[in-house]
Design goal:
Strand order of the largest sheet: 4-5-6-7
Strand content: 25-35%
Number of strands: 7
Shape: elongated
Structural class: alpha/beta
Helix content: 25-40%
Number of helices: 3
């Protein structure tokens, strides 16, 4: 009996044929396109004839990072970063990550030489926010803003430097533009 006709060789050939048939019959999943977020920037009712640029938003929830695309005004760095914060906040609200009862943070951009520091000033809600949610919010803002060109992110609470932004986690409140340690 020839070697190729042994039961083990025939079984291997059948397994390869079955795998090939399965690959031919199974359709690959449709590619997913980036999620589009409405354009941000400008005043309500204002005619918008400015050009727009895409920016990437990173929404972190439960240690899972979701990447979204949004359009913001093609403006100087400080305005573009402020529009990016507005777009991210709207997306966090839409997804239920932003805590209810907490207004959107006020955004200040401090340009120190070539570097821009984004300052987020928030008025916290009366109820405490879970640590995990605060971690997700800080991770979302920091990843989005550093990818958009901010050198660092600083946090204020009611206009005052604070070591805790929403009450739980230690955050950067230094506005001197020095190197930030994480």
């Amino acid at each position: 009996m020839p070697r190729w006709s042994s039961p083990w060789v025939l079984l291997g050939v059948l397994a390869v044929l079955a795998a090939a048939a399965t690959l031919m019959l199974v359709k690959p999943p449709a590619p997913t396109s980036p999620v589009a977020v409405p354009a941000f920037g400008g005043q309500a009712g204002e005619a918008d004839d400015q050009t727009r640029v895409d920016t990437t938003l990173y929404v972190v929830a439960g240690n899972v990072e979701r990447i979204l695309q949004a359009e913001v005004r093609d403006a100087p760095t400080s305005q573009r970063l402020a529009d990016t914060v507005q777009a991210l906040h709207a997306e966090l609200v839409r997804q239920g990550v932003w805590p209810s009862g907490v207004p959107a943070p006020q955004v200040f951009v401090v340009n120190l030489g070539r570097d821009a520091t984004v300052v987020l000033d928030v008025t916290p809600a009366g109820q405490p926010i879970p640590v995990e949610r605060e971690q997700d919010l800080i991770a979302s803002f920091e990843r989005t803003l550093t990818e958009a060109g901010a050198a660092e992110v600083a946090y204020l609470q009611n206009g005052q430097a604070t070591g805790r932004w929403l009450g739980n986690l230690a955050v950067n409140a230094d506005l001197s533009g020095g190197t930030r340690t994480r």
